[in-house]
Amino acid sequence: MHQTDVWVILNDPGSWRPGISKPDIIDLLEPMLVDEPGLAYNFTQPIAMRVDELTSGVKSDVAVKIFGEDMDVINDLGERIGAVIGRLPGTANSFVERTTGQPYLNIEIDRDAVADLGLNVAEVQQVIEMGIGGQVVSEVFEGQRRFDVTVRFPASLRTDFQMLLEVPIALPGGGFVPLKRVAKVVPVEGPREIARENGWRRVIVGANLEGIDIGSYVENLQQAIAREVPVPAGVFLEYGGAFENQQRAMRHLMFVVPLSLLIILGLLYTMFGGLRHAVLIFGILPFALSGGVFFLFLRSLYLSVSASIGFVALFGVAVLNGIVLVEHLNQLRKRGQPLAEAVVRGAGDRLRPVLMTAMVASLGFVPMAFNTGPGSEVQRPLATVVIGGLITSTLVTLLVLPLVYEWVERRFGSRDTSA
Fold first, then answer.
1. Which of 38, 264, 355, 395 is least crowded, fewest Cβ atoms below 10 Å from its Cβ?
2. What angle is formed at CA 58 by the lines to CA 53 and CA 64, rounded to 5 degrees?
3. What is the pTM of this model?
4. CA separation for the pair 395, 401 (Å, rounded)
């Protein structure tokens, strides 16, 4: 066994001594591991590790997969990339997959001695193969069933190479010589595993991150590798781990988010019977977006997949508030009220409904925004985006949207009442 998982079970955080956090615990454990010869380690969490391992086959945030045919070449490239990752800003810890270091005992045949004794290599190999691995010499039948009869040396002889070298080998002219006359046992170091993916031999260099987002880290890593580590012909790199999941999720979001916005615009067009008011309400979304991004920046959070999902939810609430206000203004206009009076009265009438909608959504996300328990790394960005975006979008809805509505109606309303 050369690969294993070691679980460090933590007590409830409430019982920890003041001022200590999980990163501090990792910092205390790492000095015990860093000088251990031949050890490549990686800090992670049980569920995160299993998810990463099942989806991409890697147990770290970022992994550089090196593919090629020559194990020596890709191992050497892995060591050089590992050195680059080790000094790259944002690397919490890193490892290079160990594919060598397995001890082997090779039986090397002395071909000159074999020739001097009148033997051939196949005869010596047959004795070794039969003694250690076994050789079928007959069959036993029991009714319709058939069993092979295998002959090999007893276990005590197979595991003791000094005794194995005393095994006699028959000479062509009669007599015997011990195996040690024509062979010797040589300890060597060889591959402990040869991992493959899509038919290619593969070595992984992994890293866990701290204080940086995955996208920026991988971009910096790609630039560093291109600058410092030339990739030989016949070798290619892929980036996996949690980065692979993030890229897959972002590709899905690049389709889902524009589709959501298009559906919202289509529903607004259907509701108001034209584009004028639909585009007016749609204009709230950039302010909602900027508020969410600004609050992420204030809390030093990253634009993650969960934050992107939060924007979709935010857009829905922001559009709802815009509809509440604009629809009421249209109703006042239809009752014959002058434009300026309708705008002032409508903004006042819808102050409490808009604030109530925004506050209910915002307050509901406050516990998630300040959660520190399991799953908080997913909840905090989502809640922060919704709260921050609702603050800016609500202010724009109540203070700016009525003024823009009045300007749009004065400029375009008399020309095209349907648009």
1. 38
2. 160
3. 0.60
4. 9
